[in-house]
C-alpha cells in the first residue's frame, strides 16, 4: 500500500510531464483519426446516398443509339441486376443569352433517380424538375413556365452522352426515332442530380475548371410525353455492388467483372448487329425508293404512250383522207365517170414507206402537229433521263451505303467517368493522403519527447529505484510505476484525441466539404477499430520509450543506484579548437556552448523536436502557397492569351465575325475545342508511362490548324517537363517545344495523374465519342485543366476525319473542307477589368456558347478545401511545437536544478538566471528552425507529389514569407514557453537543492 501511495505521490509531483505526454498523444491521435474520420464520414454518407438513389454502376453508350435488342442483350449479362434504358435530348432556351440543357427522362427502374429537395416529382407530360443551380441562375421558382427549342443537330463539342448517334441513326433508319420531349414546360420540383453533387450555393470556384458537362443544366421529365424508340444510353446496376463501398477497390473489382463481360461478349456482337440493322434499313429505304420510282416512271410512260397513240391516230386519219382525195382526183381526169365514182368510194392501199412519208409531210406542214410531236418526244426524253438518273443515284447509294454508315461503337463506362463523382473522390483521397502522412511526424515527435521526459523522470528517482530494488521489489514492479504513468497519460490524451478526431476535426472538414458538395444524410460516425488502433499506436511508441529509459537505469545494481550518478567527464567541444572564435567569447558564452554541445542527447532531442514542428508548419504553408499560386501561374504565365471563346459549329463563323467587329482583339488563333477523355490502360509494358498504370482523365482536346502550328506558342507557353523528385519537375526552355504531326502534347496535370510521359501510348476520345490510340510527343507544363494539343493532320489520322485528311497538302483552306474551328484564343487590349467585362458581354451573344477571361480566372481561382485542411494542419503543428518546447524546457530545468541553485548562491539575480537558461533554449530552437525549414520544403514536396487530382498539378512553391512565418511562429512559441519556465526557475530553493543525497 505504501508503494502505491508513493507511486501516486510521484505521479502528482510529475504532473507537467503527464500533461506533456497527454497533449502530444492528444494531438497525434487527433491528426491520425480526424482527417481520416472526416473523409470516411463523407465517403459513407455519399455511398449511402448513391445506393438510395440507384446511381448506376455501369453506363453503356453507343454512337448509333441503343435499340430494344441492345437492352435485351445487356439484361442477359451475368452479374447484371438491373438495366434501365434512358432517353435524353439537348435543348436550348433564352436566359440572358442562349443556354443549353439536357432533357433527361426519369427512369422507371429505380436507377439514377434525382433526389427531391423542394416541390414534387414531375408526373405528367410538360412537367419537369430542375436543379438548384438553374433556380439560382434563372430566378425562376416552382410553378414557373419555360419554353425550350430542341437542337436540330448535336454539337461537335459534346461528349458521348449526347444524342448524336440517335440523330445520325434517324437519318438512315426509318423505323427508329430519336427521343423527343415536350417543349412547353412547367417547373414542379427542385432536385439534386446524383451524378453531380456540386453545391451551386457554395463558395468554391474549383469545379468550374474541371466540369465536363456539355450543357448548362439538366431538366428531369417523366416518361409521359416522351417519344422515340432509340435510347441515348443504358444504365446498369451490378449484383453485389451495393454491398461494397463505392470508393473501395472491392467495388471497382466487382464492377470491372461485369464491364469485362460486356466488352468481351455483348459489345462486339451488338455493334455488328446494330450496324447490320442500319444497313438493312438503308437497303430497304433504297428498295422502297426504287419501287416507288419505277411505279411513277411506269405511270408517266403509260401517259406518254396514250398521248402518242392519240397523236398517231390523228395523223393517220389525215393521211387516209389525203390518200382518198388523191385517188378521187385521178379518176376524175379519166374517161369513164363510173369508174371514177367507184374509185372514190374505196380508200387506196398504201405501202408503209409511202404512208410514213405522207405522215412526215403532214406533220411538217402543220405547226400544231409539229409542236405536239416535239412535246411528246421531249417528254419521252425527259422520262428516259429521269430513269437513268434515278437508277444511277440508287446504284450510287447502294455502293456508298456501307461506307456512309460507320462502324458502331459502344462505350462501357463506370462511375469514374462521372465528373462529379471523380472530383469528389479525388478531393477526399487527396485530403486523406495528407491525413495519412502527418501523423507519422507527430508519432516520431511523441516518441522523442516521451523518451526525454520519462528518462529524466526515471533518473530523478534513481536512488528511490535502488531502495525499492534493495528492499526486494522486482524490477518489473518498480518499472510499472513509470509504465502505468505513461500508459495513463497516453490513454487520457488519446481519449481526448478521439473526441477531437471523430467530432471536432470531422465537423470542421465537413463544413468545408458541404460548401463544395451537397451530401444528404451526412452524419458523424465513430470507428472503434481505427480509434483503438490509433491510441494503441501512440501507447506502443510511448511505452517503448519508457521501457528503454527504465532498462537503461535498472540494469545497474541497487548499490550503484543508491549512489548519485557520477558527473560526466569533462571534454572539449569542437568550438574550443577554433581559437579565434573561442578566445573572443565571454565566460557565460563558453559555458552555454559547452552545455549545448556536451549533452548530445538533449541537443538531438531539442533540435529534432523543434525541427519536426517547424517542418510541419513549413509543409502546411508550402501546400498553401502552392495552391494559392496555381491560378496566377496558369492564367497569367502558361496561358498567354486573354480570352477563349467557344461556339457551336453552326455559329462558328458568326462568333468570329462578332469578335472581329468589336475591335478588342490584337491577335488571335482559331482552334477546335472538344471535350474528351484520355485513358491509359495498365499494361506493364512501359508503353503507358508507368508499368501497370491505369486510369482515365477528362480532357480538353485542342486541334490546331496545320498552317498555324507555330502560332500556338504565342498563345500558350510551351515548355517540356520531365518528372522530378520530391515534388519538383524538370522544366525545359520556353519555346523549345513545338507541335507537329507525329504526336500529341499532353498537359502536365493529366500526365502526372496518369503516369504519362513523352513516348507513351494513350487512348484519346474526341467529342464525337470516337476513340484512337495516340503517341505522346511531349508533356507540356500545365497546372490547371487537362489540355491535349493535336495538329489538324494528326487529328485526321487519329479519328479518320475525311474532311481534314488532305489539308496539309492543300493549297488553300478553300480547296478542301477543313475542320470547323469552333473556338478562338485571343489577346485583348485593355485592363483586366475591361477584359472580364468583355467576356461577360460575349456570353450574352447568341453565337457564343462560352467565353472565358484568363484575368477573371486568375483572380477568382481558389481551392477552399485544401486551404481549410492546411489551416488545420498548421494550427495542430503550432500546438505540437508549443507542447514540445514546453516539455523540453521543463526537462532542461529539472535536469539542472543543482546548477541553477549554485548560480543563485554565487549571486546571480533571477533575471540573470533566466537569461542563462533561456539563451541555451533559444539557441537550440534556432538550430531546430534552421534544420526544419529545408526539411519542411522536403516533406512538402513529397506530400504534393501524392496529391494527384483531376485537372490539377501541384508545382511546389514556398514563398520566403512562409519561411519567415514558420521561423517567427516557432520562436514565438519558444518565447511563450519562457513565460512558463521563468516562474519555475524563481521557485528553486538554493539550500534544499544543494543538499547532498548522502
What does this structure look like?
This protein has 998 residues and is α+β, with helices and mostly antiparallel strands. It has 29 helices and 23 strands. Strands 3, 4, 5, 6, 7, 8, 9 and 10 form an eight-stranded mixed beta sheet that branches. A hairpin with a 5-residue loop joins strand 19 and strand 20 (771-780). Helix 3 packs antiparallel against helix 6 and helix 17 packs antiparallel against helix 25 (864-895). The longest helix has 84 residues, at 249-332. It starts with a helix and ends in a 5-residue tail after the last helix. Residues 153-174, 203-213, 339-345, 682-693 and 802-817 have low confidence and may be disordered.
Please mark out the parts with pLDDT under 50 across 5 or more consecutive residues, or reply none: 153-174, 203-213, 339-345, 682-693, 802-817
End-to-end Cα distance, whole Å, is 27 Å
**What structural class do the secondary elements suggest?**
alpha+beta
Count of individual beta strands: 23
Could you give a short account of the major beta sheet? 8 strands, mixed
Shape: elongated
Mean pLDDT: 80
Helix share bin: 55-70%
Radius of gyration: 44 Å
Q: What is the percentage of strand-forming residues?
A: 5-15%
Provide a count of the helices. 29
Task: Please tag this protein with its features.
998 residues, alpha+beta, 8-stranded mixed beta sheet, 6-stranded mixed barrel
